[in-house]
Each structure stands twice: as C-alpha cells, then as structure tokens.
Amino acid sequence: MKVVERPVEAINVPGCFVRIQGTYSSLRTAEQRVADFILKHAEELIHLTVTELAERTQTSESTVVRLCQKIGYKGYQEFKIMLARDLVGPVNSIYEEIVPTDSLRTIKTKVFQANAQALRDTIEVLSDEELERAVTAIAGARRVECYGIGGSGPLAYDAYHKFMKLGISAVALVDSDLMAMSSSLLQAGDVVFGISHTGASRDVVEALRHAKDNGATTICLTHRATSPITKVADIKLFTAAKETAFRSDAMTSRLAQLSIIDTLYLGIALRDYERSLKMIQRTREAAAAKRY
Fold first, then answer.
1. What is the pLDDT of residue 244?
2. Where are the domains of the chain?
3. Of 19 and 61, more confident
4. What is the pLDDT of residue 249?
C-alpha cells in the first residue's frame, strides 16, 4: 500500500459537541434523538425553547433537561448559552482519523494533535468543584488507596507515587482479590481513588462499593458519565476524548487522566506548601541514594 504524505487539517467543533460525543453511547434512546438533533441543527437550536425542542425530537422536556445535565450543564438554558458562545468562536479541533496510507510523519502529527485535543476537551468536562472536593478528601485522609485494573493499573501507581511523596499514607492495588479484601477493611476517614476509563471494570466498581458501604470516601476517574463506577463514587472526575478506527479513546484519555492526577497532586501540595516541600525533599534524597 502506497504511503501518502499529506497535510493534517483540523476541523473546529463546539465544546458542547465534545461533551455530547463523549457520552453519546451511554445515553438512552430518547436522549440520543435529542443529541442527534443538536449535532445536526445547532444554529436552529439557539432559537428553540425546551418545549419546542422536545416536540421536534418527539421526546419530553424532562428528557431534554436530563441530557443537558448528563453532559455537565445545570439545565437547558445554560446549555444554550454555552452553545451560542461556542458557535461564535469554537475553541476545540477534531483532527482527521489515521488511515492506512498515512506516512509515519503524518501519523506522528495526528497522534500528538489528538493527544493535545484530549487535554483541551477534558478541560471542558472536568468540574472545578469536584476537583476541589477530591483535593480536600485526599489531603485530609487517614489512608488513600488507588485502584486500577489492566491499562488503569499504571495510573493507579502514578497516583500512589505522587500522593506518597507528599507524606500521604497511600497504596496502589491492581489485583482484584487484594482490592476486595483491602476495601472491606476501610472506614470513615479513608479515601479510595478508583480509575477506570470505561467505568465498567467490575473489580474496581465492587471495591469502591465495599469501601463506600464501610464509610470511606470514594473518588472515580473515568470517561463515561453514566457508567457503573459513577453510581458508587462520592466524587466524580471525567475525561474526554474522541475514538477513531485505529485509536481507542482510552489511548488519548490516558494523558488527560495523568494530567488530572498531576492537578490533584499540586492542589494537595499547595494546601500545606512548607510541609509539602519538606516531604518532597526527603523523598528525593532517599531516591538519590539509589542512583550512581
């Protein structure tokens, strides 16, 4: 197959669309009808009331409002305001999919651009209030346990590594049996940080459920706003990414997840700046003794 060198073009899309596309697969049939209408008739939507939109999509007003809330807005009016702003000057770009004829140089460009886009999209869906709650919970925890299975395992270790450097009593668990046993022993004052891109990892979800039942605070980091893990999480942190034929959205979301973990780390560190500096310095000195 002949390799083709061609310029990579970006297509501007409203940030609201990013949210819809990120949650589309988890929406109910009626909600998807509303979503489809919005994606196809965005400019017309600006002039429709919630009742008119419900009539046009053969749904109900409550379905319209529920969709707006699922993608991170308080209601239909806030959604319309944000959509109108994005239509005037959309800030997000969706880059072309990778195709078999792409050269390695083109693939490199698309991969880097898609990863950068995932970070921009995640800013659209990540709640500042939930981030603040997560920082407060972890900073004040008696113990923090980070859970992740498969590809989320290294992310759990990254979170543990960063929290531990701040003097937080933390551990990372990537074994399902150990997660089940450890979570059953947690109590009020403890925090579980569960990472699952799909939000449907049974082992992680059940471990969070055990911890929550025992009084621990549960935090999830996921891509799916209506996934099972969100039902057992007290605090919910979301990423956003676009899936293509050759790249799953989990690939690009990984960088967004790492960025959220970094944000938590820095947010916690700044809660007690002087103490954090001392902890970081002590761990650096301990690690330095292991190097040549």
1. 47
2. 1-125, 128-287
3. 61
4. 52
4 sits in the region (left: phi over 0; alpha: psi -120 to 50; else beta) called: beta
Identity of the residue numbered 255: L
Is the pLDDT assigned to residue 243 strictly greater than 80?
Answer: no
pLDDT given for residue 250 in this prediction: 61
- Give 44-95 pLDDT, tens digit per residue: 888 899 999 999 999 999 999 999 888 878 889 888 888 887 776 544 444 5
pTM of the predicted model as reported, rounded to 2 decimal places: 0.76
Place of tokens 């698309």: 110
Taking CA 183 as the corner, what is the angle to CA 179 and CA 188, rounded to the nearest 5 degrees? 155
Q: What is the DSSP string of the chain?
A: ---B-----EEEE-HHHHHHHHHGGGS-HHHHHHHHHHHH-HHHHTT--HHHHHHHTTS-HHHHHHHHHHTT-SSHHHHHHHHHHHHHS--EEEEPPP-TTB-HHHHHHHHHHHHHHHHHHHHHH--HHHHHHHHHHHHT-SEEEEEE-GGGHHHHHHHHHHHHHTT--EEEE--HHHHHHHHTT--TTEEEEEE-SSS--HHHHHHHHHHHHTT-EEEEEES-TTSHHHHS-SEEEE------SSS-HHHHHHHHHHHHHHHHHHHHHGGGHHHHHHHHHHHHHHHHTT--
The domain 1-125 is placed in CATH, from the list 3.60.120.10, 1.10.10.10, 1.10.10.60, 3.30.420.10, at: 1.10.10.10
Q: Averaged over 208-220, what is the pLDDT?
A: 98
Superfamily of domain 128-287: Glucose-6-phosphate isomerase like protein; domain 1 (3.40.50.10490)
